[in-house]
Amino acid sequence: MLESHAPDLIEAHAGQDTPAANGLHTIGDAAVHTGLSPKMIRYYESLGILTPQGRSTAGYRLYNEADLHALRFIRTARELGFSLKQIAELTDLWRDRHRASAEVKRLALAHIDALEAKAALLQSMAGTLRTLARHCHGDDRPDCPILEGLAGGIEVPGLGPHRRAGGTRG
Questions:
Q1: In sequence order, what are the beta bridge partners of 160?
Q2: How far is CA 62 from CA 53, 68, 77, 87, 134, in A?
């Protein structure tokens, strides 16, 4: 997906004290600067969404400012609910300075449609629970319409009725 940045920079700066002195960051520093955990950064690398600057002589991953910027891009895309596959596509488009913005807009609009459908489903589910809660007295009595509704296989909007063993509705 993403190509490696310039690994020869590591050797060119090998005589300097620390990666930070060279404008490079360890994975821990990258995590602090981007709000991502080192585990997530390694995960994005394993998927090919990000390729680190290179490695230090001790074998530690090193990240430059462009890598940190890409990690912030990935984090923001995740916060907006894009899938990892979509993020890989968006990252490739972001890096391609000759891309057509129409493709980016297509991805964004498709994601908006998915988010709106999910929001509608969540609203419907909340409505079902609200109805059950309205019928519950919420007192010391043991009978509870909420539990009865859940145990009775209520129809959950968007998911359909739950079936008991034997395929009959309970």
A1: 156
A2: 5, 10, 23, 22, 56
